[in-house]
């Protein structure tokens, strides 16, 4: 689908997508921390597609399920009960990521710190 | 002012404030990471008072100015140009935190990782 | 699905769900008034799952269809035409609640006042 | 200031303001219940000016401080900690309404039910 | 579905729908410009149903695909990457509007200016 | 203040600001139409600083007061009564733009179309 957006051939949109990709590269903060920030931002802004994308990135970055759930809890408290349906959605996506092996038991960013 | 809210003596509100405080204690994620998540969430939800509170907590947690700015950049890209006035506000608050010594040159969470 | 969230065994999330449940118990305001407040809040925040949950609670609390529609009208005026798709969703849910007998003709909170 | 908006002489805006006023007249729900709904909606949408307006209407309608606080607690739980600065603002406004006699001790909607 | 809303027979809701329709008639701004404004507003508020409705109106008003995409780019920059899933949705709807002939090659509002 | 943001020397933020500026250059849509879109988007997202910036750009682009008010009416209907405080703010800013000569009687984009 992003291919279709690229095919629109709108320079501004192409630049935005490029900027978006670069945002999550290592900088003052490591890439994985920025993925966790984006996950929390997506949850309080209540965007399921965005939550799914950043959940996958967080799992690939090596965060454990418990760490991801702890980040989603911050989103729940900041954003309130209106976030609950998106928490449910996230938990269902996490199950899929466990089943397909993206999210593994040995994942843990914070214990390695 | 929070004292006045406590004086309302509403059990639900008291419990929410207690829950809110506990959210940022060390858990699966360390306290400081959760403060950075809350800062980003506050920025995309565009709440200056919340931004100021979590900026101070992030500075006290040892994040450097560059790391905090990198987190705010995630908020800018996720939330768009509507976040710019709040980015300006955050930069002014960071100056105050530098001047009063809360934010120091030696701060750095990610280089120590 | 809430069971799966409970199974996450995250103390903060469990406490939030407990707090959320207690919010709607009788207090200075009766339980049913708080359900109507939450319905309106869900509508202006445009969350269909939340609207459905609170519609059912409002119907069970004895509010009539006309009273519920009057509350949704407040949400429409406060939140604007962006609320219209959620008003449509709510009307479809109300039909289901009428068909299954949750919302009855004899319901009326305000006429009994 | 609303006078200046009327002086713009834009038919659509005038009609919106007229519609807005009529929304809070007695209907299937009594006027005061709709003011309380609008207060909660204003709090979750985080608009201080709107909160102040509806707080005054709720106080004039006879709601007690405890009832108003209970409504704001629903907003806090639905909308999350991002609502806290607006809760603080509301508490300050309630103090003013107590001092000027708009909000009185004898107010109580729900005990009369 | 709007018929069902009309059948609710709520005077306030009927008036709101009437007001909503009149908003997009020629005024100080031509009708088509106001449809483009509503499309952008719908995109930053992230409402797919609203986006679809105003996309169709914009196509019928004679805007070209490039002009509509340029408007959506404004929404993307103002609203941030959280708008991307809605941009994807809009691009899929534009394809349908091209296939059914609502959006035609010869459309162009700005070249005629 | 934007100078201070540039001095942060964060490549991502600099690129976002550059992208933001380029968004409003003539493209498939003329620059002034895009300023009007951004004004409406800023109003429904309820950001006074953003409203002020785009009001000035719209006035400089040659839109008349009536055309700008007609755009703000679209924002009011889409965004609801929660937009009213921002409409008030915009009307006060328009007065300043009239007084300093930025907004002139002879302005009119649509009559020239």
Description:
By secondary structure, chain A is mainly α. In chain A, 68% of the residues lie in helices and 0% in strands. Chain A has helices spanning 2-7, 11-23, 31-44, 48-60, 65-79, 84-99. The model of chain A has no long low-confidence stretch (mean pLDDT 94). The N and C termini of chain A lie far apart (37 Å). At the A-D interface, helix 5 of A face helix 5 of D.
Q: Please state the CA-atom Rg of chain A, rounded to the nearest Å.
A: 15 Å
Quote the distance from N terminus to C terminus of chain A.
37 Å
Mean pLDDT of chain A: 94
Q: Name the largest protein-protein interface in this structure.
A: A-B, 33 and 33 residues
Q: Which regions of chain A are unreliable across 5 or more consecutive residues at pLDDT < 50? A: none
Largest sheet of chain A: none
Total strand segments of chain A: 0
Structural class of chain A: mainly alpha
Helical fraction of chain A equals 55-70%
Question: What does the oligomeric state look like here?
Answer: homohexamer
Helical region count of chain A?
Answer: 6
Using the alpha-carbon principal axes, give the shape of chain A. Answer: globular
Secondary structure elements and pairings:
The structure is a homohexamer of 113-residue chains.
Chain A: H1 2-7, H2 11-23, H3 31-44, H4 48-60, H5 65-79, H6 84-99
Helix pairs in contact in A: 3-4, 3-5, 4-6, 5-6
Task: For the structure shown, list the relevant keywords.
homohexamer; 113 residues; mainly alpha
Summarize the structure.
The first copy, chain A, is mostly helical and 113 residues long. The first copy, chain A, is built from 6 helices and no strands.
């Amino acid at each position: 689908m992003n291919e279709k957006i690229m095919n629109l051939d709108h320079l501004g949109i192409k630049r935005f997508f490029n900027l978006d990709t670069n945002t999550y590269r290592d900088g003052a903060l490591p890439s994985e921390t920025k993925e966790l920030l984006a996950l929390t931002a997506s949850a309080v802004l209540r965007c399921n597609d965005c939550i799914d994308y950043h959940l996958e990135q967080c799992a690939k970055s090596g965060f454990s399920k418990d760490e991801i759930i702890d980040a989603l809890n911050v989103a729940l408290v900041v954003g309130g009960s209106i976030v609950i349906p998106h928490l449910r959605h996230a938990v269902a996506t996490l199950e899929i990521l466990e089943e397909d092996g993206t999210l593994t038991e040995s994942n843990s960013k914070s214990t390695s710190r």
